[in-house]
Amino acid sequence: MLHITNGDSVADKLRQGAVQGEVVAWREIYSVGPVFRDMAQRQNREIRARYLERNFGIPQEEYLKIEEQERILRNLKKYNEIVLWFEYDLFDQTMLCYLLYCLAGQTLGDTKLNLLCIGDYPGVERFRGLGQLTVKQLKALSGTWRPLSERELALGSKMWEAYTSPLPEQHIRFLEEDTSALPFVKKAFEAHLSRIPSVHNGLGLIEQATLEAAAGAEYTPHALFGRVGEQLHILGMGDLEYWRHLKNMWEEPYPLLHIQGLEAFPDFGHTVPSFADCRITLTALGRKVLAGEEDYLLLKSKDEWYGGLHLEGKSGPWRWDTSSSRLIER
Fold first, then answer.
1. Most buried of the four, 56, 127, 136, 208, by CB within 10 Å?
2. What backbone phi and psi angles, to 5 degrees, belong to 195?
């Protein structure tokens, strides 16, 4: 039996007697950086590796170890049964749908495929993920998974194909699909698109929430991440991802944030002890953009990936309309 989990925290707990069988932690963050339909292709992995090293400090050779887990996907026939352990947010749903896409493209014979995907847990008031559960709580979930249906495999494949597409129209069309087979997919996909600069002021969801929080009080980085991360829990955003957003909003030209006491930003290989004591406030421009008096994308060029969509330069033709939850062409 093989259990595939959404990272090491859950995997480590499952190995402590919560389940029987082999446990593999799937290590990826498909919610950030360039992604491609075929992630097993060496050229695609190398493009992604360069991006993650440049933006998060993850050494390319470290990331390219992902080939080891891709090999597991190519050798699933040896298992009698496979269970996927995931939750509701964008981080997880992109990972889940990649795995469903890969599973749908294989002939696995008698191997049984199962899914455990939850958005809450009895007695946990603010459920944010499987990682916050104890070994005992995870053990209580053992056996509650259900067989994967053809509808789920097909929808997961469609989601992955849409998410990795470089064509905005394909992202738009996916929101018109019947997504009932995977009940968390639609909200996660909308959250993905809401990160794209808005029609209102050129800010994506993360930047907007950050400025709204910092407009009312002075924050330390970790306190601000705690507030924004809790508000935007649908993203499943990690701290390194958020530090990158802070850096982009702080950098010249046209900074939106002032960060007092900043020496450097932490990344994958480097901690910065003084970073915890920094104080974050809005610049004058930050207040103007927040009020809708300036369009940030018209001021500052972007070079960002949203799934397979690559936004470069100023005044991109596609914007997110927060009032209608739609991607529209300007």
1. 208
2. -75, -15
Nearest to 195, CA basis, from 143, 235, 243: 235
Could you read off the pLDDT tens digit of each residue along the chain, which spans 330 residues?
Answer: 999 999 899 999 999 999 999 999 999 999 999 999 999 899 999 999 999 999 999 999 999 999 999 999 989 999 999 999 999 999 999 999 999 999 999 999 999 999 999 999 999 999 999 999 999 999 999 999 999 999 999 999 999 999 999 999 999 999 999 999 999 999 999 999 999 999 999 999 999 999 999 999 999 999 999 999 999 999 999 999 999 999 999 999 999 999 999 999 999 989 999 999 999 999 999 999 999 999 999 999 889 999 999 999 887 789 999 999 999 997
The answer for 18, left when phi > 0, alpha when psi is -120 to 50, beta otherwise, is alpha
CA distances from 29 to 38, 141, 295, 304 (A): 15, 25, 29, 15
77: left (phi over 0), alpha (psi -120 to 50) or beta: alpha
Strand 2-5 to 22-25 pairing: parallel
What is the residue extent of each domain of the chain? 2-185, 195-299
CB count in 10 Å sphere of residue 265 = 18
C-alpha distance from residue 69 to each of 4, 11, 72, 236 (Å): 10, 14, 5, 22
pTM of the model: 0.96
3-state secondary structure 105-144: CCCCCCCEEEEEEECCECCECCCCCHHHCCHHHHHHHCCC
Instruction: Please state which CATH number belongs to domain 2-185.
Output: 3.40.1360.10
Crossing angle (nearest 10°) for helices 42-56 and 239-250: 60
| Nearest in space to 86 (alpha carbons), one of 130, 27, 37, 22 | 130
